[in-house]
Amino acid sequence: MRESGIYQMYLKNLLDRLLALVGTAALSWLLILLGIAIHLDSPGPIFFRQKRAGKNGTYFYIYKFRTMRIDTSHDMPTHMLNNPDLFITRVGRFLRKTSLDELPQLFNILKGDMALVGPRPALWNQYDLLVEREQYGANSVRPGLTGWAQIHGRDELPIRQKAELDGYYVHHIQLKMDLECLWRTAGAVLRQDGIHEGRLEKQQMKGAKEVVKVGK
């Protein structure tokens, strides 16, 4: 068996959970402080819970720090909103710029719903993205806190290109690739690369269909 196969089958999940446990313990003080800030800033729960697509067509609920008002449409990506600034809270704006809103996904990794690196979990109703990913085998692994597509453009990428990059990752999973992805993600977060709040330009979204809006 190839080294990459051993890593994917036996070591990746173990390392993901171990690092998530260490990260949760080390960042517990920050999680508490951010929770207090969210509570004081706007009415509503501290955490945001949303249905996402998981491995092999399963579903799970992702955890994030709440960054938007409680009257925001629950199942629509922020980059599809016409004017997201109307919905993002003051603390939420900081959390989204720094990607700190993603920290609660450490709990998803501990539960086994997610990995540190993998295709980012699509909304359950992002059918066009899920169909494209299926063509590249990208739905066959646990979704990740970060992914190969995230370090190559994030929200800037059209759906087909995202799916291609996710598929490339799935067929080349190895420890070196995961470490590279984590390292480059840290750099992208610091530079705030590829983040778009609001509807993308038509040419960037070519081939993408609007997500079904089902309400809160």
Q: What is the averaged pLDDT score? A: 86
Number of helices: 7
Structural class: mainly alpha
Kindly report the spatial arrangement of strands forming the biggest sheet.
Answer: 1-2
The strand count comes to 4
Q: What number of structural domains do the residues give?
A: 1
How much strand?
5-15%
Order of helices and strands: HHEEHHEHEHH
Gyration radius over CA: 17 Å
Q: How can the largest sheet be summarized? A: 2 strands, antiparallel
State the distance separating the first and last CA atoms. Answer: 47 Å
The shape is globular
Low-confidence stretches: 200-216
Task: Estimate percent helicity.
Answer: 40-55%
Main attributes of the structure:
single chain; 216 residues; mainly alpha; two-stranded parallel ribbon; 9% strand; phosphotransferase activity, for other substituted phosphate groups; Bact_transf; Putative colanic biosynthesis UDP-glucose lipid carrier transferase
Task: Please describe what this structure looks like.
The protein is mainly alpha-helical. It has one domain. It is built from 7 helices and 4 strands, in the order ααββααβαβαα. The protein has helices at 3-26, 28-41, 90-98, 105-111, 127-135, 159-170, 175-191, and strands at residues 47-53, 59-65, 115-117, 144-146. The strands form 2 sheets. A two-stranded antiparallel ribbon has the order 1-2. The radius of gyration is 17 Å and the shape is globular.
